[in-house]
Each structure stands twice: as C-alpha cells, then as structure tokens.
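Record 1 of the preview.
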Amino acid sequence: MNQGNNISHLHKSKQAYIEPEQLKVLNKKHFQGALVRSGANLFMLFLLWLSLFFQAISPYKVTGIFYSVMVVVVINIPFLAILKRVRKRWIYELISLLLNFTEVICYTAIIYFLGGIRGAFFTPCYAVIISYTGTVAPRRFPFIVATMCVLCFTLMIVLQYTGYLPDPTNQPMPALSWANLILMLVLVNGLLYIIAFTSAYASNLLSKNRKKLRLKNIELEKSRKELSRLAEDLQIKNLELKETTYRAQQADRAKTEFLAIMSHELRTPLNHIIGFTELLLDRTFGKLNETQEEYLGDVLTSSQHLLSLINDILDLSKVESGKLTLELTDVPITSLLQNSVTMIREKSIKHGIKVSLGTNRLPDTIRADERKLKQVMYNLLSNAVKFTPDGKEIRIEAQMVDGKNLAQEGCKGQRNFSSAIGARKLLKISIIDNGIGIEKEHLEKIFLPFEQVDSSLTRKFDGTGLGLSLTKRIVELHGGKIWAYSEGEGTGSTFTFIIPVTEK
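->
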C-alpha cells in the first residue's frame, strides 16, 4: 500500500513540473501567439489612423484606443521573459491567465473608447482570444477566459448605463430599458460561452487526434525499422542461400565426377571377373562338379547385377553432368520393339507371363539413339515382368500420335501434361501390366534416383531404384516425357513415354 502511495506521489510530483522539452513547446506557442496578437493589433492601429485620416472616427477616441492597443503589444515582452524561467506548472498556468486577463481588460477598454454600449460590435475580439486559448491551453482555460470577458464587458456596460462610468463620446445614452440591456448582455455573454465550449471541444478532439497521430507515427517508425531489419535479414539470407547453392553445386559436381571415376575403376575388374567366370562355366579349363558350377553361377549372376548397377550409375552421372549425349541414327522402330520383347522372353516364359506387341501406323524408321531407346524398353519391360504375377499378361502398344491433339485431350493419369511439345509427330509407347500396381501418391516418386515404393530391407522385389530414373533422363534427352498410371494396389500399371521423331 505504501509503495502504491509513493508511486502516486511521484506521478503527481512529476506532473507538478514541466519537462524541458514540453517547456520549449509551450514557450514556442506563446511566442507565436504574441506575434499573431501583435500583428493583428498593429493592423488595427493602421485601420484606426486610416479612419482618422478620412475623418471616420473622432480624434478623442484615438488616444484611448492607441494606448490600449500598445499595452496589448508591449505586455507580451515581460510575460514571455517570465514564462521562460518558470518550471512549476501551476505558476506557468497562472501567468498565462494573467496575460489573457490583461488582454481582456485592454480589449474592454477599446470597446469602451469606441462608445461602450455603442461599441458592442467589437465584442468578436473576445471570441478571438477565447478561440486561440482553446487551441493551445488546457480544456478549462477557454471557460476561464470567457468568464473574464463576460465580467469585464458586463461591468463596463452596467457602470456606463448607471452613469458611474462617463460616456467617452459625451453623448446621451441610447434609450435602452433594463430588459433590453439584460437581453443584450445575455446574448453576447451566452455567445462567448458557446464559443468557449466549441473551442474546448475542438481542442479536445485536436488533442486526441494529435495523440493518435503520435502513436501512429511511433508505430510507423517501428514498422519501418522492422522492415529495414527484415530487409537486412533477407539480404543476409540471400547471400547465405547463394553461398549454399554454390557449395551444393560444387558438391554435386564432385559427386558426379567421383561416381564417374569410381564406376570406371570398378567396371574394369568386374568385366574380368565376369569373363573368367564365363570361361570356367563353359568348362574351357576342365570339368566342374555341381557345387562348383552352382557357386560360379552365383558369382556370375552377382557380378552381372553389380555391373548393371555400375553402368546405370555411370549413365546417370553422365546425364547429371551433361556429358551423356545422343547418337542419332535411323532406327527401325518395329524391329527394335520386337527385339525388346525377345530380350525378356526367356524370363517371361519362365514365369508363364504372356507378352504381346501391338503397333499402329508406325513408320519404317525414326531418328533416335538406338542403344538408349533399347535401354529404355529393357528397363520398362524388366520392371513389368518383375512386378507381374505368374500367368498374367504384359501388353506393348506403340503408335504415332499428333502432339497438338494429345495436349488438348490430355493423357490418362497425367495431370500436368503440357502442350510444349507442340504439333510435332510423336512416338507413343505404353507398357501395360497386370502386376501389383502403384498407389497414386507414388506415381511421381518412382522416377527419382534410388527411390522405390517398398524401400524396406525385407522387400519382396530386389532392385537399385536407378532404372526408372535413368529411363526418365534418356526420354527427356530425346525431348520427350514419361509418366506412370495406376488405379492403386493390385490393379496393374501403365508406363507411357512419348518422344518427338522425324519419320524416314
């Protein structure tokens, strides 16, 4: 409780004194107000002398008005000097009110010298003081100044009407009843209080808007600094990303070169192992017993599998490094497809799988890389045989299609098919099997290097996961596209690729 009282006391003590920065602002406002008042009053003097020159005003009025105006101008100097040295808030406000009170007295004197009751037309000068006070002072100040104006004006009019204050014009008083006089005072004074209320209300709105604007400016400055910080962070991230990209490119290039070198180094001794193993199995150096033949058969099979893997890695590394190029020749496409069926015939017969070939409007020859096209067909057919249960069927469908029509119709299972191939003639080949099928979410994943749908160590089907990836790269080297389609597990799969060709 004591701590709360201490905090409240400190807060009140802080409010009792004006901060240096706030004092500068207040003094600047008073100085600006003094300049405005002095300029307005000097202009009033100019109009006064102009009226005297054209004999629009009596000379005896000029002296009183001149001294009243000069007091309003001169009093600003001492008051401003005093306000600069005041730190206590209540003293500062009291001196400001004294300055306003002096101005009110001087303007009342000007109204008196203009004729008193006859000079009531000059009462809007009170409204100017009240309005200006409302824009720079606390909300209660306009009402205080309005009360000063009401008291001074009412006292001057009543004293003049009752004869206690001589008429400066030495003319008879206008014939006004007390009722009319009171009505005039009520109207004038009521108008002054209305102006005071309007000024205070406008000052309150202005103060609130200033606070909101100040808060918005603070928030805007914070946002600007935050954006600047984010921009710097983004610039740093971009530099880091560039550096990371460069390192990744360097690492990828080093990996590709390493794979290429190691593939060459491994392929040479493997070819020797395969060659010597085949010589032994052919009984070139003598007879073999069943155990020796079985073990050498395993060695030959494993070596050939390893050589196939190394060849795939080498070809894939060449594609990634841009070193794998096409050797285009005139390829007899129908003969190539028939030979592809022959390559897997032994394995398909072993498992009772029927392989059929259907062709439609194929040209005699096309321009393509024959060896790589054979590799594509062998990879796709080997996969089809491997994943097709015994006794099922594999179909090969080959035809020439128009690229423009194919793009408009779309391709089954290919959502992102593009018309970039244009209106060229395309060779479209589909391998359709009745195998285990592929889930739709895996249809694109299977074309990634070393990716397989079943990647567990206990998977039923062996493989490296490089065949389809390499097949995709070779098709794309020909300017074509490959995709897979399946309704899901147990529904079979369809692998389709298209390549633009020039008929011969």
